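Last lecture ended with a question: if I hand you only a sequence, what can you say about the shape of the protein? Today we answer it with a concrete record. The protein is Pimeloyl-ACP methyl ester carboxylesterase. Below, first the input exactly as provided, then the predicted structure, then a couple of comments.
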Amino acid sequence: MDYEIKTQGKFSFIEEGEGEPLLLLHGLFGALSNFSHMIEYFRQYNKVVIPMLPLYDLNILETSVGGLAKFVHKFVEARGYTNFHLLGNSLGGHVALVYLLKHPEAPAKSLILTGSSGLFENGMGETYPKRGDYEYIRKKAELTFYDPAVATKELVDEMFEIVNNRLKVIKIITLAKSAIRHNLGEELQSIQQPTMLIWGKNDTITPPMVAEEFQKLIPNSQLEFIDKCGHAPMMEVPGEFNEILHKFLVSLQN
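The predicted structure:
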C-alpha cells in the first residue's frame, strides 16, 4: 500500500489511524515496507507514526545513534505526541533506548524492542559492504530472515542501491560503528517504561541471548520468542508479531 508522506519542517513521516500514537523506528537498511503489515493492522487501534530517520542526511559528526536519538526527540516535540508507544527494530531499537535514557521525562507510555542492537550484534562482516556484488548483497539480505524467501528481489534491490552509493555507504559504516561503540549495558536499568521484547528465535544478527540479556537489564520487561523467525519478526511473521504486540498494548490500557 502507498501511504501519504507528510512533512512538517525538516521532518517527513507517515501517520495513519487514530488513538494512542505507536511510533515505529526502522533499522539501518529499514524501509517503510518493513512495517506495512503493522500499519494495516494497528491503524485500526492506534495512530501509527513512522518518521523517516535521516540515516544519510546528518552531518558526519551527528551520524551516530546519539544523533538519531536527538532527531527523534525533536520530532516528538514538534509533533506534540504524548502517551505514545515507542517501537524499534534493529538500530531503531538502539535509537529508542538512547532517546529514553537521555530523556527520562519523555512522554512515552511503553517501549517495544525487536532484534535491537545496543548490547551485541553481528555486523555485516569486515568485508562489508561489497559494491557491485549483487549476489553478496542478496546472501546478506537473506541472513536477516529464517526463511530466505522473505528477502524479495525488491528488498535486495533496495539494499543494492544503497551500497552502490558511496556517500550512503560511508554513513552506513559510520552508524554501524557508532552502534557497536555505544554499548548500553548497565545503563538499561534506568529505563522506566514497561518494555516488551519480541524476538526471533533464529535471529543470527542479535541472537536470542541478546534478548535474554535485555530482559535481565531492563527492569519492567517481558520477553516473547517467535520460533522459525529471524531478525525482523514484524516482516517475517507479521500475524504472530502483531498479536503479541496488541495483547501487550491492551494490557497497558487504563
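Comments.
1. The beta strands are 6-8, 11-16, 21-25, 47-51, 84-89, 108-114, 195-200, 221-226.
2. The chain has a mean pLDDT of 92.
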